[in-house]
Write a structure and sequence with these properties.
By secondary structure, the protein is α+β, with helices and mostly antiparallel strands. It has 2 domains: about 210 residues, Aminopeptidase (3-Layer(aba) Sandwich), CATH 3.40.630.30; about 140 residues, Gcn5-related N-acetyltransferase (GNAT) (Aminopeptidase, 3-Layer(aba) Sandwich), CATH 3.40.630. Helices cover about 35% and strands about 25% of the residues. The chain is built from 11 helices and 15 strands. An 11-stranded mixed beta sheet has the order 2-5-6-8-15-9-14-13-12-11-10. α2 runs antiparallel to α9. The longest helix is centred in the last third of the chain and has 26 residues. It is globular, with a radius of gyration of 22 Å. The relative contact order is 0.14. It comes from Trinickia violacea. GO terms for molecular function: transferase activity. InterPro entries: Acyl_CoA_acyltransferase (IPR016181), FemAB-like (IPR007434). Pfam families: FemAB_like.
């Protein structure tokens, strides 16, 4: 590669700890969608606690571009060499299976993403448009030079997606469900905008939890104790156990982000007779221009109580959004059941490059057909808008 003629020096880093945290976060602050998950603290916690490491199948290969004139970081991306497809939420298992059936290796592959985090936002941090274009070209060129099957940029912004597709990458679309704050005064004001049946169902669900004697504590990251984090981690592991799966994250990770970015964290803890029985973790960020966004992340319960999941993971966070005047609540991956609770469908994007020409052609045709189906499905979902017409 010839970055020199663009006055950039490329770095390929084996850990986010190799890049200056202040410079990384400074670039993040310049982006139009600077989610907390791209903070140096979050990515470093994933690596140092071994959640996203070579041992876990997420070998860091962070890409940086340094301005040779100033010596300062001009662009950067979180890049991982993957030996599997777990924890991505943009599913390419069928592609990997097709490679295997044809005697080809799909792994390793390169993934530009935040591990275990299906949140759309900046993936190519850059000081300006020129640096962003060069970073996009560097990612593609790097994939072509390395012995990998493919490059996948997951949940980038629309602008970043265009930069990548201009370089020949294929766009893929998905659906998530997001709640928008229309300046609601309180939760009842929000309920008043829903269809009568939806409003009645939500009130019934909340009443069941109250009548079961459940109370709630909302604990900001700054106030969370080690006991709170240990309890939440226990709930988180229980969710994976119930699905016969292994958790991606560990207690050390939650402790680490609790120490380094507490201002972005909120725990909702459900209690019965003073004993904690369930918990959810949400992440939020404030934005001077829009108000900010809350991101639903993890939940778990040690005891079964009807409707407790909805109260702990949706209604309590929604009340927090309204009280804090946050303008959006992103509910995470999938979940059409969220529509009945005021969440609306929205398009997410990813970009993909495959080294094998025949497979790239086949996947390109598949993605075009998939996009048509997704758009038709969104049209159908919008016909069932939960709000009053």
């Amino acid at each position: 590669m010839k970055q020199e003629r663009f006055d950039y020096r490329m770095g390929l880093l084996a850990s986010p700890l190799e890049v200056d945290a202040a410079e990384w976060n400074g670039l993040l602050a310049l982006q139009p969608q600077p989610t907390p998950f791209l903070r140096h603290e979050f990515l470093s916690a994933l690596t140092t606690t071994q959640c996203a490491s070579e041992h876990a199948g997420w070998a860091p290969r962070f890409v940086t571009l340094t301005d040779t004139r100033t010596g300062r970081l001009a662009a950067a991306s979180p890049l991982y060499l993957k030996s599997h497809s777990y924890g991505e939420y943009v599913f390419d298992w069928a592609w990997a299976d097709a490679y295997q059936r044809n005697g080809l290796a799909y792994y390793p592959k390169l993934v530009c993403a935040v591990p275990f985090t299906p949140v759309q936002g900046s993936r190519m941090l850059a000081a300006d448009a020129t640096a962003q274009r060069q970073l996009a070209a560097t990612l593609v060129a790097l994939a072509k030079q390395m012995d990998v099957s493919s490059l996948h940029v997951l949940f980038p912004t629309e602008t970043e997606t265009r930069a990548l597709t201009d370089l020949g990458m294929m766009q893929r679309e998905g659906i998530q469900f997001h709640w928008l704050n229309d300046g609601y005064r309180d939760f009842d004001d929000f309920l008043s905008t829903l269809e009568q049946k939806k409003r009645k169902n939500i009130r019934a669900e909340r009443r069941k939890v109250r009548e079961a004697g459940i109370t709630f504590r909302r604990v900001r990251g700054e106030d969370a104790t080690d006991a709170d984090w240990r309890f939440f981690s226990k709930c988180y592991r229980q969710t994976y156990r119930e699905h016969y799966s292994s958790p991606y994250l560990n207690l050390d990770f939650f402790r680490r982000i609790g120490e380094t970015m507490p201002e972005n964290l909120l725990l909702v803890i459900a209690e019965f007779e003073g004993k904690p029985i369930a918990s959810s973790l949400v992440v939020y960020e404030r934005n001077d221009a829009t108000g900010g966004t809350l991101y639903g992340r993890y939940w778990g319960a040690l005891e079964h109580v009807p409707c407790l999941h909805f109260e702990t993971a949706y209604y309590q966070p929604l009340e927090f959004c309204i009280e804090e005047k946050l303008d959006r609540f992103e509910g995470g991956a999938q979940g059409e059941h969220k529509m009945a609770r005021g969440f609306l469908p929205t398009i997410t994007r990813s970009a993909h490059w495959l080294a094998h020409p025949a497979f790239e052609d086949a996947v390109g045709r598949f993605l075009a057909n998939e996009a048509n189906l997704i758009h038709a499905h969104i049209d159908e979902l919008r016909e069932h808008n939960p709000f009053k017409t």
